[in-house]
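new request in #modeling-help
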Amino acid sequence: MRGAQVAGREVEHLDAIPGMGAAFARAMVPSRTSRVTLPRRISTVHDVTQNRARLADYARVCGFTLRDAVPPTWLHVLTFPLHIHLLGDPQSSVKLVGAVHTSNSMTLHRPVTADERLELSVHLEGPRPHRRGALVDLIGQVRVDGEPVWDGVTTYLASGASVEGEPEEVERAPFEPRSPQARWRLPADLGRQYRRVSQDPNPIHTSRVAAKAFGFARPIIHGMWTHARALAALENRLPAAFTTHVDFVKPILLPSSVGFVASETPGGVLADVVTKDGAKPLLRMRVEEAA
Amino acid sequence: MGALEKLYYSPAGKAIAGKAGLKEPPRLRRGREWPQGPIVLASIGGGELAAETMRLLGRSTEAPVVDEGADAPGYGSRIGALVVDATEATSIAQLEELRALLRPAVRSIERSGRIVVLARPAAGDWESRTVSRALDGINRTVGKELRGGATATLLYVDPSARAGDLVSTLGFVLQGRAAFVDGQAWTVAGADQPAESLQARPLDGRVVVVTGAARGIGAEIARTLARDGASIVAVDIPPAGESLAAIANEVGGTALQLDITADDAGRRLAEHVAQRGESIYGIVHNAGITRDKMLVNTDAARWASVLDVNLAAQMRINEVLLSADIPGGIADGGRIVGVASTSGLAGNKGQTNYAASKAGVAGLVTAMAPDLAARDITVNAVAPGFIQTEMTQKIPFVQREVFLRSNSLSQGGLPVDVAETIGYLLDPRSQGLTGQVIRVCGQNLVGA
Amino acid sequence: MTHNAVVIGGNRTPFAKAGGPYAEASNHDLLTAALDGLIARFGLAGERIGEVAGGAVLKHSKDFNLTREAVLSSALAPSTPACDLQQACGTGLETTIYIANKIRLGQIDSGISAGVDSTSDAPIVVSDSLRRTLLKANAARSAADRVKALAKIRPSHLKPQAPSVAEPRTGLSMGEHQALTTERWGITREAQDEIAAASHHKLAAAWADGFFDDLVTPYLGVPRDAILRPDTSVEKLASLRPAFGGPRGSMTAGNSTALSDGAATALLASEEWAAEHHLPVLAKVVDAEVAAVDHPGGDDLLLGPVAAAGRMLARQGLSVADFDLVEIHEAFASTVLATLKAWDDEDYCRGLGLDGKLGTIDPSRLNVTGSSLAVGHPFAATGARIVPTLAKLLHAKGPGSKGLISMCAAGGQGVVAILEAV
């Protein structure tokens, strides 16, 4: 089905997944205006085939076992060029650079296999008010022959931008410090490795100079790597169809060692990527069986 | 993507589509969800069967609003369902009572609400037989007039049936499980089922074989039946083995890589089950292929492969599994479910071979049912309409889009809708249904 | 208390040529896939199994717990323990013997034996001199010392060393060793090509028959063994150029196994456990033996199984003629032929300390569904491929049918085992 996202929006059909070059360059120029404007259209690509070699590389970098059924975060990676395409649009006052990836949700409605041809679509929604700026959502969907198999919401914070209205209160499960049950050692070149498989060329993940320019002492790892790694850690405890939500609480500098904790609750799995000592959360993740 | 498909998705195309009334379809209530609003219960002629069944189901009911011809009364707020017991309705005059019940209800029915009429199968004098058939016309029309995903169902209840025989049926129809079953009528006979409510896991501990289980509808059938407690034997062709293994592990069942057209397929299936010291409670013949071509281009090979996979193979397998005393065969009290198709019932351009096979499935179940009644084995089929799966991708875009929209629910069904209907037929308490074909098509315009 | 250890069944991935369709898959990925297929076949999702023993010949150091990690990625209960074993090409049979012995002793009631190899995922190692330099730099106390240590790196050090299939003590590759054996035993080119062609034809027939439908689960879209060439023939094989033994050698790429990727598993249990779990029982593991020859002293590298079989058969009071089926791993076609000749050679057998020759077998009982020449030979996987295959074949022949497995392995070693249908 078209889904609610068609309603009132223009649909732009791309013949292939857009390249990162020009759009990315535009998406890299930080915005100076505080008023938020967003392109309203839906960008879609049909008949996308998945590259098994890249999938294998992705699985290896993130810690997944290579199977016929792909990780849901892989589907996010496939939609990412459409994010750049929209944020690189002249109509978009929100640019990738300067925007902070604050949270991400996705639902895998059924297992998707590597040989399936996909229809990808992404559009922007928002802005929503936030105490430090404006939130915008990139709404992604992956379909196989019209059947929605994956839905994703990527939320960016455009700091400095302003939107009328009261920021919505977000309820978060309280964080209780505890000793990590796993430690991950993130090597200095992890940003480079993840860039290779995700094709996210943002230099704050790979260049010390670029990282410094944005206030980080060292490059930081992509939030979506951390998300993927956390899902991979739960590997065979994941249901076949599930919803997962993550909040990116703090960036993780490279190289570094971080901790991981997970607990099963009646509602699903709660997992945190934490500082090495378990004292502070860096990423908080929920996984629930899809309805 | 073809040029037409592109045009359709273009802004201009969307505008035209909007004018043509192609709005976003309603989201259907699914699963074991009951209607949100109250269930209204009415009786024409004083029949008590529906009331007793509702008591067994443990659902409270409310009294109906009746249109007495003044100024079209409503319910004030949305109702979840209207259940009309018309089992004692035998005269044309009594049809007016039904009209007076339907008019307020149709106005006030909630999204994905239900209108269910219980009636007697045609029997008795000329008038009562006429009434029985007239109700079918009413049911079909109500189905088409209802909006927002609400559906209409007509249940012909044999006089031998007691409330216990109806529990699985009325529970299925009222719950979200019947989301894509609309405008249909079928018959429930008496089968001495206990006067009990719905079971949460009706298939607990029972072995159910699902062919074509590696993906699409078959995978969903395996999941849904496993949810209902079944121990699944997932069958598919060997090249589909990896997906098949994933499904089997997901549902805690076993995988059997098997080409169902092989001569010894039935024997190997029985062996797989017998080796585990079990027998088959139910088999769902879901495996199917399409080799579409207009008849002028249909050669013997296209013809043969479709007929063999979709029809002949399941006949051969049934014969083996039903032969007396075969270890791992179908036990007495078992269930056989075929998967037909609305293409088979209505015919469909370019699908002579497929239509032959699928109409054949409908014929097969009606033929087998009486012969297996003595062993308490029921044989039924579901006939999916447009269900969104990988296989339907092969249908040309325009035809697909027309299909999607040309039913009373303005949308394609999901694999789970077919699976839920199969689960209902497999329910041990559905003993009173045999030899029937239930369409899961959202009341598609094509077909009977 | 002792128990019968029985083979319930098996599962493997299709095997494929190195660098082919599994080029991107690691040992971990392959082994997990083979395990998941086995679990699905026998409905073991979420079950705790007594132990899983697996191994790989070519293994990254990070994969020290390869089998346990694959178990954790699989649908088995995470409380299933696992260990890694390795005995070169004998690994998959050695893991089976290990599991069977534990079952027979009552230490476990169920187990999975496995083997996997991916020559595509083979670890690339640095040269010894580079390794020593890097260790020195790492141990350096000051930055200056570290720079000094690192300054000693020479371009030649940076040449990666692919894992070698050469025998460490002789410097000869396995093919070169076998070429010596081929010549010594007078094995002809024609006989080798006949073995190779027959292997392909028998494997193709078994696939066409659906024989592997309950032994193999596809992986990454590969539906069946990818090395298999159903249309090969003795004539086609005769046109290949020699690969080992010099220009006049008789061993070619066609009658030697190809470097392969794949994983195989076998499910074993006590008869009691199998009955409780309503699982089929194909054959019991009767006996096994390992032997080695003095190949640095000039013995035939790949004829280790002759002594192993001789000692095991003497213990069991059997001759090779007593077996309904025989599986001789086709490392090379000439290995099979030399083994058969050695079994029937009185002097050779007495030289091994045996009481006499083992006898001959009816060729129609040998490798009846093909072997490594056609299937491929992911080193550690082959034993775990052969065990369920033979168990299924014996079961079809009826209770009491006996089968012999003979596998040669690097280091002049040989592993053999007897299965008997129940």
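bot summary: Residues 189-208 of chain C form the longest helix (20 residues).
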